[in-house]
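Exercise 7. Predict the joint structure of the components listed below.
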Amino acid sequence: MSATQPPLNSPQIRRLDPVLAPGHTYASVTDKIASAVLTRPLGLGWLAGFTLTFTAVMVLFISIAWLVIKGVGIWGINIPIGWGFAIVNFVWWIGIGHAGTLISAILYLLNQKWRTSINRFAEAMTLFAVACAGLFPLIHTGRPWMAYYMFPYPSTMGVWPQFRSPLIWDVFAVSTYGTVSLLFWYVGLLPDLATLRDRAKKPWQQYIFGLLSMGWRNSARHWHRYQSAYLLLAGLATPLVLSVHTVVSFDFSVAIVPGWHTTIFPPYFVAGAIYSGFAMVLTLAIPLRKAYGMEDFITMRHLENMAKVMLATGLIVAYGYFIEFFMAYYSGNKFDVFLANQRLHGPYSHFYFALILCNILTPQLLWIEKVRRNVVALFIMSLIINTGMWLERFVIVVISLTRDFMPSAWGRYSPTFWDYSTFIGTLGLFTMLIFLFVRGLPAIAIAEMRELVAHEGHATKDHQ
Amino acid sequence: MTEHRSHLHGVMGEFDTPEQLLAAAKKARDAGYKHFDAFTPFPIEGLSQAIGFRWTAVPLITLIGGIGGGLTGFGLEYWCSAISYPINVAGRPLNSWPAFIPVTFELTVLGASIFAVVGMIALNKLPQPYHPVFNVERFAAASTDKFFLLIEARDPKFDLSGSARFLQEASAKHVSEVKDEE
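Solution:
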């Protein structure tokens, strides 16, 4: 401590924004969050948004129907590019899901209070993103009704899945991830469903929330087991979330294709997943807090913290890009060197430069405090990062497949109308589920917010 | 309606702050009550210890689920690849265990998670749509901002007026009888 340090109450020291705006009581947080589900009328904005996204879901259904009728030939894929948009979108969506688990599990274990108001809808985002992700490999098989072949069941053919293949690991990783995310989400929801049951006025609301809450009665014994289970789930979900994107990266890195066969893939995929996931949380949180007046709960502290996480994970991703080049040149493997050059000078180089712009250059603005605290700038940046992460997967999947070992096996890839319509359809599905979620279930964990009120010490004074 | 008989389930005191409830719970235990429970809008540290509930089987159940899931995963892979349908690929080992780790890991997590959640729900005896405490009208506030202590009628020390007075003396703002309908 030097003598020149300003005193703690000096205006030179910036106060951190609170994680919960002052003046809130147990009842006020409960009312505010529950009313969004129970009493608030459907606004024009919600109806318009829902209609638009529902239309996109219809586009998805039509695209899938056409795919089932005609086969995967309606997409731009062919040999050598067997993995087009479907796998790009799969990796993109599953990566987005990862931030939800990171917020709900890892930040819980690290006792980060600011996770409280964003964990519930981040978990919902995880579930919906995993649903969109899971759809792609399924329809990419071309015969989705045969997908059960991937599970080990005793069949009359007597054969089993190839357990040494990353694609089968992926089946187990993604289905486990979806299941555990759902369990985690439901356990978190249980006390809040009971809160809604107790506050519901309309009989059908009482009936539905009564059914879903299973008779939860806030008993201290229940809470004790609940907290034990929640902590264990957080501990289980933490290695799980890291394993899922690691296994997704194995889909690439276990293959010998140049540009895929690198050991940097698992950590760099996980960092990229968290990077894009936080971007998506911001994309959702910023309009949500505005539309439902939740600025007291999702404060600038949350937005700024998320911006900092994006900056940190963005730098890890940048390191990954750098190491890919470094290893290609350092190894001297002529196929790897050639592929690295293809990224810079090949037919898809504009994608690569757009990726660098979106994922590495733009986020550097987050070093500036004014940008981190500017809601509009953050929102735009979250969209840019999501675009960048999509481009990253495009670069990984497509450039490597178009340029493998022999020039005679080279090819080009261009997506068709149906590639785009399926992708836009899943964007619609994701957004539609979010629209339904914010009106059907508490978008912020109510019981945890009450706990936060107790810890922040607002309760005792303002109470009564 | 006249067919319904109701008998006393217990007596319930309502408190305004977690501190008051915690103090009352400790008092009740010191006074020798055995069958009592507390209801709070959020988990309160030390409360379950105060009502004499320390140990839960949830971690043990989770461990069993995890071990079971892991053994199932590895056993399945070993059995499929080495026993049921062994394929000799250039003399490579049939039990190629490093390649079996990802699925083993995933099923460990899956088993542990499902056991943790189902175990928690089952130990809490949920789903249980009816419970006598719901008959108390003010009890709905247990999920908003009130804290309740229930002394059950089956407790040997229970007597209606004495236990009600006990709760009042422990600074309960409101004391109500909890009726159970049969």
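Discussion. Residues 99 and 169 of chain B are 66 Å apart (CA to CA).
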